[in-house]
């Protein structure tokens, strides 16, 4: 039985979205290349199973609220001993339920399609016996925090009567297995079709579909489900690959086919191969085509840059065809793709305000700060393109993501590996720093793409991991200054150390390069976490000065606000300073954005990565949902991202032009709503709030002057660490706990 508290909280969670349901649309005015000409269907696989346990009350409820109005609720039908039909993804109950706790000795071994299979099976229990068994999260990489809500099994009749879905899709995967146990799936489905409205019935067994054809309502469509091409279809003894070549035969008993997405867009090493002709071939036979295996939290083809909406668009529009529906664990995402981002056109106008600011160019697809990263960021539609300025040993300013060359080059494997140094006031550990090599030496280095989530085997574009070349600041300015719609952001860090210890004047070098480039001053942002750096640019030109607060903060006191206003017009803050989180659950909203904007300071937020492991569960492993929640929910002024294409497309989102009729799948998430659905034993531990930014954190000493005689230094050796300074002072050591937190969470999930 479901936890009553969970149901009440779930109702409250959904209530904030209910008012928007009637406003949902389906981009109906556009011409679709589906068989019917209508928009593709969204089929919610076990409901919203990407977050809640598959086929649970919560999963079906959330799917209805966050999807297109004609969403189909998918139910994998399993039969109990007393011929009740329950919705459960797997033939074996032990993978995603608590049955092993209730029936410790219930394991059996049965042949399933000729393979001896051990587990707990529904055929051994009556529905009454299963009353105390609850469904749980069966995908270990997904959160198990909702397992304590005691969601019970739902029957087909439960789903039909409790949710009254716009469409019910039943999938029958193992008719032959049930026949072997003297249970007739055929009779059950025929009987169920007389009690409830069934829109679609799918099965990978030809014999089953042929046995029910003509015996159910003509309004119910039969769909043949293809498994992998080398598997054997049991009733014909042919491979699914062979059956794919005979669509005329499929048409004799089905009106559509359901295929893994790789049947349409094959992949090799996570790169797309040329598309097949399957969709057009099937449409010629008047067969609808539905594609499956869509999951936001599974590595996508590198062609999609970890952006699930880009994948859906490739199946419904940009590939030159449209499937008739998609089967997804995250139905909010195809709903967005179909209604908000399909048919935008090249000249679509922006509907959202935020500036799209690159992080090292399009560094999600190319090595940071290379010509390719910058060229692609511009092509992707970035508004502000960034150059973090570093200094070479001979005083050449150039664009590079870090003062440590190890971060984005192969310098550690180069002849310069002996120049490793330890400089605690810059970073913990050792590094090979930009000021240890001349510009000519740096130009010989091979770029290396950054993959910040490689610990989760999520890598960025391996084919181009060493592509491109580095640019001097002057080359960067010349590349960008003639793009009329583009602004540039020059980021300066470690200026104090460079001046005092290396006799390198980075601020003077930047001013000189900007003067020589004759760059339009209204298009230049100067950014630093050191207020003294920004003070050097005050009064010289009409540059826009941006103060970067690196630390996660919970608030800003009045004195620090007053100080920031004296030297900056914009502020960069961390995402956690807007929506704090604990173990990847949002815990609320701070007043940081409101306070900064009330002082006429624009707020830019970093960093919006596309990789799903970077996003709290509240954003459904969907980068667009995350961006939308910060823009529409927190009213930020800009997003900083290594994937500018995703953010630039978001600005053209046609759903945002509907005023009060914005659909639920494009409404911002409510921070702390999900964590309220977690029962006490599963709650993550409370964490201390982030600190408040104070005047002491903002105030910095003046930058030291650069002497005419360079100080003596050697490529090797260590530098002594100075006493620690305030959080934003130079020098400092940057630290991040995100990967540690995520690794800890996944390690915990793996125990279940």
UniProtKB/TrEMBL annotation:
Chain intervals for the UniProt region annotation (Disordered):
686-731
What keyword terms does UniProt attach to this protein?
Glycerol metabolism, Hydrolase, Signal
Its transmembrane ranges are none
Question: Which Enzyme Commission number(s) are on file for it?
Answer: 3.1.4.46
InterPro entries per record: GP_PDE_dom, PLC-like_Pdiesterase_TIM-brl
Q: Which residues form the GP-PDE domain?
A: 40-338, 354-651
Recorded catalytic reaction(s): these are: a sn-glycero-3-phosphodiester + H2O = an alcohol + sn-glycerol 3-phosphate + H(+)
Looking up Pfam families in the UniProt record yields: GDPD (PF03009)
First and last residue of the signal peptide? 1-23
Biased amino acid composition, Low complexity: 705-720
Q: Which GO terms describe its biological process?
A: glycerol metabolic process; lipid metabolic process
Instruction: Give this protein's Gene Ontology molecular function annotations.
Output: glycerophosphodiester phosphodiesterase activity
Annotated family: Belongs to the glycerophosphoryl diester phosphodiesterase family.
The protein, known as? glycerophosphodiester phosphodiesterase
- Species of the source: Ziziphus jujuba
